[in-house]
Specification:
With 386 residues, the chain is α/β, with parallel strands linked by helices. The protein has 18 helices and twelve strands.
Length: 386
């Protein structure tokens, strides 16, 4: 069996590596070609070119390399057509992957599978119909996504979310964390702050988060701020009033492997009593850590106007969507204000039971305790080839 697989960013590389591992277990002798990073290469992929060439975000970054990316799209599609694989699997990165799939479909009858459904349930519903012209099957991370894809004629399989496969944080891991960060005093309440992984997010949300933490009625609190090494200086500057006023630590994963840093981040979340986080998949990490949360996010005035008119759901928090509840409070756009955020944090700290129940439901619905998502994805791909 020949599989051509493409990922364009680290998160896709992790999904791809797990899927390839699943295929290897189910189909001895399977061979792979395509584009991927270190995780996929560890499963036997020799990447056509460095995956980092595709890890671009934003018009300002893409425009200078637009012609080069167009060549890579054509080059990759030609390689698929020449290889004649049993299946082409594209992983996330729709701007690159779906363009490749479109060219492949125009020049061959290769079956196409896209891993990670577009968020058509939230906005831009027309993407599903457009995608159906070049994609035969979709592998979905969330259980509510298949109907949106199937309505446009694509097969769609829910294969589980990687966060649900994370083993629970152990007391030993927490003790190791406290030993490393001895400045965290015992007997005090811990608040974990997650202001995003982009510099613009940290700058935009910082002042609001600082004021919200200061205004909570949680006494003797300490703060933990997980971030990345290259963002540490910015986080320390933006959150200096909080770090000085509440006492706390910045956890950046310096000197650790990517896997070790991700695990330390999860341990930090699990050690906290409550979280204040920017909107995004971080709510699922907090669910895995079983930490009650408040979600807050703001954007530019123009983005507010555009997104508010396009949004198709009454919540952007994935825990709320997966659990089919609205127990996680969220403050988005003009509602992202310190006082209500502080009140919600206090409420989440003093009365966490409803949230804890929703967090458990979320993890169960995402596949916790079941077969690994990579193996489920591999089974779905093979089923689609019959």
């Amino acid at each position: 069996m020949k599989v051509f697989v493409i990922a364009g960013e680290p998160s896709g590389d992790k999904l791809g590596g797990a899927l390839m591992k699943g295929l290897r277990a189910l189909v001895p002798g399977v061979t792979f070609e395509g584009v991927g990073g270190p995780t996929m290469q560890a499963q036997g992929l020799e990447s056509l070119f460095p995956m980092q060439e595709l890890s671009l975000m934003g018009i300002a970054e893409i425009l200078p390399k637009y012609r080069h990316l167009k060549r890579r799209i054509r080059e990759t599609a030609d390689a698929v057509i020449e290889t004649k694989p049993d299946v082409l699997i594209t992983i996330d990165s729709p701007d690159f992957c779906l363009r490749v799939a479109r060219l492949v479909k125009a020049g061959s009858d290769v079956r196409t599978v896209h891993y990670v459904a577009p968020t058509v349930w939230a906005w831009r519903a027309g993407r599903a119909a457009k995608m159906a012209k070049s994609i035969d099957q979709v592998l979905a991370l969330f259980p509510f996504e298949p109907p949106f894809m199937e309505a446009e004629g694509m097969r769609c399989d829910f294969v589980g979310h990687p966060v649900a496969a994370e083993p629970p944080v152990t007391p030993t891991e927490v003790q190791g964390f406290l030993k490393k960060y001895q400045m965290l005093a015992s007997g005090t309440e811990k608040v974990v702050i997650l202001p995003g992984s982009r510099q613009s997010e940290i700058e935009r949300l910082g002042e609001t988060f600082v004021k919200a933490i200061a205004d909570t009625d949680i006494a003797d609190k300490q703060v933990i701020i997980p971030t990345l090494p290259h963002l540490r200086a910015q986080v320390e500057r933006v959150f200096k009033p909080t770090l000085d006023g509440c006492f706390g630590v910045v956890v950046d994963g310096e000197g650790l492997t990517a896997e070790q840093a991700a695990r330390e981040r999860l341990v930090a979340m699990a050690h906290a009593d409550v979280a204040l986080a920017a909107s995004g998949t971080v709510s699922l990490e907090l669910a895995a850590a079983r930490t009650p949360m408040v979600i807050a996010y703001d954007m530019s005035w123009l983005s507010r106007q555009v997104i508010s008119r396009m949004l198709l759901t009454d919540t952007v928090t994935l825990v709320n969507l997966v659990s089919d509840t609205r127990v996680v409070p969220e403050f988005i756009g003009q509602d992202c204000q310190p006082t209500p955020i502080a009140q919600a944090l206090t409420q989440a700290f003093t009365s966490p039971d409803d949230q804890l129940a929703a967090l458990d439901v979320t993890m169960d619905r995402l596949g916790r305790g079941g077969e690994a998502p990579g193996t489920r994805a591999a089974r779905a791909v093979l089923s689609g080839l019959k």
